[in-house]
Amino acid sequence: MSFRYAAIVAGIALPFAGPALAQDTSWCKSKYGPNDEIGAANLLSAEGVLEAAKLIKTGKTYALGVETNKSTPAYAPRTWNMIILQPSQVGGVTLGNTKTSYNDDIWNGWVGIGSQIDGLGHVGVDNVYYNCYLGKDFAAADGLKKLGVEKIPPIVARGVVLDMVGLLGKNPLPAGTAINKKEIDDALAKQGGLQIRKGDVVLIHTGFQSIATSDPKAFLAGEPGLGKEGAEYLVSKEVVAIGADQWALEVIPFEKGSGVFEIHQILLPRSGVYILENMNTQQLVDDKAWEFLFVLGQPRMTGGVQSIINPIAIR
């Protein structure tokens, strides 16, 4: 799918991006070696899990994924359909002397819909992807031959949520509101002097998920989100993943001077940092659960670009 086509369908005006953006590929080499396919997930460790587990004080769990269905607002032309069947049971036929009956489901839709993790094979720079893998060499119609989501290990780490609604006093934040270094630092200070640590998962609460069902057109037309400076700042903190409660993580309309989905480029191909979209952060903020144990085991679909997910926060 072309980002340009999808953005035009969604009503987002994009500037022209010409060819030859990535002739110098020194920017894409992984510091973890020429065969690396998991990027910032290399920062995960058993020691980090044990440390993050100490944050559990109440045992309360939070589902960070939203429901996925045919009404879920999706980046065009993505769609979703669920079909329920009763195989070999036409007319109420049952199986065996115990009269077993059952339902099965067929999911016919795009993976990049609802709550999702963007794998490192999702976005590149001029067809060059993380660790300098070339799209022409690994992006096949029957699945990615490199950087597939099946390679992502379980992400179990300290999670931090940044309450930008509480900081900026608007709920939801207006589309086009950029979150950069100042906003990140101010939110951390306001939330008790939190620190972002190496190996963390950082979530951003903008309140924007609240309009996903009530006003899906406005939800898709633009959004508050991470700015270029903010993305580079979080990368410098060596985080594993960054997520938010809207559909693209980054601010739209794009910041002046920023390129088309440049935050995706900064995080995925340039840094190996995963993106979590459409996260349900409201309950964490309601409970002031600023830090927690984050747990994600994404579906291991061989060669997949993205996965629909429901991460769990435990505090």
Defining key terms:
315 residues; alpha/beta; nine-stranded mixed β-sheet; two-stranded antiparallel ribbon; 9 helices; 15 strands; globular; disordered N terminus
Short description:
This protein has 315 residues and is an alpha/beta fold. It contains nine helices and 15 strands.
Ranges where pLDDT stays below 50 over 5 or more residues in a row are 1-22
List the strand order in the largest sheet.
1-15-13-7-9-11-12-4-14
Percent helix: 10-25%
Number of strands: 15
Query: Cα-atom Rg, whole angstroms?
Result: 20 Å
Number of helices: 9
Coarse structural class? alpha/beta
Outline type = globular
Overall average pLDDT: 93
Biggest sheet layout: 9 strands, mixed
Distance N to C terminus: 39 Å
Strand content: 15-25%
Q: What pattern of helices and strands is seen along the backbone? A: HHEEEEHEEEHEHEHEHEHEHEEE
What features would you describe in this structure?
The structure is a single chain. This protein is α/β, with parallel strands linked by helices and 315 residues long. The chain has helices spanning 3-9, 46-53, 135-138, 164-168, 181-190, 216-221, 228-236, 262-267, 282-286; strands spanning 61-63, 80-85, 104-109, 116-118, 139-140, 143-144, 155-163, 178-179, 201-205, 225-226, 241-244, 274-277, 291-296, 306-308, 312-314. The strands form four sheets. The chain has a nine-stranded mixed beta sheet. Helix 5 packs across helix 7 (228-236). The longest helix has 10 residues, at 181-190.
